[in-house]
Amino acid sequence: MEENNENKYLFQVNLKGMIELLSEHIYSAPNVFVRELLQNGIDANTARKSIEENHKGIINVYLNKVDDTPQLIFEDNGIGLTEEEVHQFLSVIGQSSKRGDFNEKDFIGKFGIGMLSCLVVSHEIVVETRSLLKDKSVCWRGKADGTYTVEAIDNIEKAGTRVILSPKKEWLPLFEKEELKKNILQFGNALPITINFITDEGTEVLVDKDPVWLNKDSSKEDLLEYGRKTFNINFLDAFYLHSDKGQIDGVAYIMPYKVQFSGSKQHKIYLKRMYLCEQANNLLPEWTSFVKCIINTNDLRPTASRESLMDDDVMKEAKKELSNCFKDYLKVLMLNDVKKLSEIISIHHIFIKALAVEDRELLKMFIDYIPFETNKGHMTFLSIKTYNDIVYYTPSLDDFRQIRRIAGSQGKTVINAAYSFEVDLIQKIKISFPDIRLEKITPQDILDTLSDVVISDDERYQQFEKRANDLLKNQYCKAQLKQFDPIDTPAIYVANDEAMSNKNIQNLSNSGNPFAATLHNFIKKEDNMPTLCFNKDNEIVQNLIAIEDETLFNSVVHIMYVQALMLGGYPVNKKEMTVFNDALYQLLIMGMSNFIGKFDL
Ligand SMILES: Nc1ncnc2c1ncn2[C@@H]1O[C@H](COP(=O)(O)OP(=O)(O)OP(=O)(O)O)[C@@H](O)[C@H]1O
């Protein structure tokens, strides 16, 4: 079928809109023009090297003053552009000479939009260029209104390109010497090229050799010194990272202090040795947060904003290889420097635990050194298993708080396994070390081990339980008389998850919540309430049993109730706080009434 060209039109691009899109949505900061210009200089040299293998690339950055305003020139001795190429690549947005080229993968750029970032900060872009392949030079001028001019010039003697920018007034600070230097170094410090910075004060060589972190012969001291200068942290140790997948090389630095498991991770990620971003979320596993990394990838793909890496299959493979570098480092440390390993484990045990869940070999090697929080303080697994035939654990911090005191008095060692991966770790330990008995324990289990008091034997005990129950039911709590150690603990509050949730629902429905009736249906077993266990052998409890005075009895029970809540680490709600304060007030009045008038005698 013949094509009908009559009603066929070309899309028009609104350049002003494109620049706004770039500056406000695609690139996060206006200083990225420095990155884009350095990148074009590097790519032009890469292209030239495919023709002249031994060519030595240079980028000169000139900061001049013209009529009292700064003029910035990025000059490279790369392949340059012919007049046709200027029309084809510089003047068409989205057109790039780097796509489809036989050495496409060696270039950093590919989208054909980077140059536009200069129009965010400069009125126009002037490109003076001479191609290695032609003896003619041209000057291209592009403006934000979408117009450009091209003219022949004769002031360029050798192949290469000069990009000249004149800053917009609002972006003048970016063209100040120190700011510019900082940005060139931020993006370009690892580039495999010489970068000279030339101002009226002279020439400063900013970059001219490989960074220490990419040099496999660097000493540990050099690596640590580099890390200290880059992150302002005195790291504990450093080790190399490498992955064939993604062609990744770099260094991981171990933090000298504890870090949050879910804290923000700031690394330095380079793509083809150009600084890219701080985050490497999908490249490094979650448990690597105890290090800061400086890494370069030659083969992972950037997003169009060039501010993060694409999460693709290569990245998944690279992640595995990098994980192995961490594991290998720790295994070697186990053989060569146990002292350092113990130091790392004692500071970063959370991460080492998460890692050990993934790796059975590491689990077996490290488990003895890993500390756990127990009811007897922090203990390594070695001492836990040495002194206990059965080790208990609780997967909930609330349960642990409740259980820890009473379990200790029963000679039990309980591990607080509140992080989800700690429970996983315990399951893995069970599989890898079937001889070690690890058992889950709940507050209910502890409650079941407290000895019952046969209240029917003594009317006073029956009376006591009834009085305490009548009083505490207003707090959604049962009272029971038990016998347990330690004897100096008058009462403990025991509640499993269901009992706690019943209590919360009860509280909500009592506080005038409009869904009260509906909420009430959520209370499953009516009788599953928290329990306040009074210790029959405790001295205060024995006195309490004998108290007849209603006000005094109620006050003491309320105070013991709130104290037990606090001891177990439970929240104390407004109603509970009120009964506690009232009880204290009553006791004060009663206490003082014994003395009133005595001084007058
Ligand atoms: N210094 C230079 N030397 C030679 N050619 C250049 C130079 N700067 C730009 N070019 C040409 O202009 C084209 C467009 O450059 P631009 O920076 O907009 O995009 P890119 O580098 O191709 O891709 P990206 O948007 O990913 O950076 C390049 O593909 C290249 O052909």
Automatic annotation (TrEMBL):
A molecular function GO annotation: ATP binding
Binding site for ATP: 36, 40, 76, 161, 306
Superkingdom of source: Bacteria
Listed name of the protein: Molecular chaperone HtpG
Keyword annotations: ATP-binding, Chaperone, Nucleotide-binding
One family name in Pfam for this protein: HSP90
Family: Belongs to the heat shock protein 90 family.
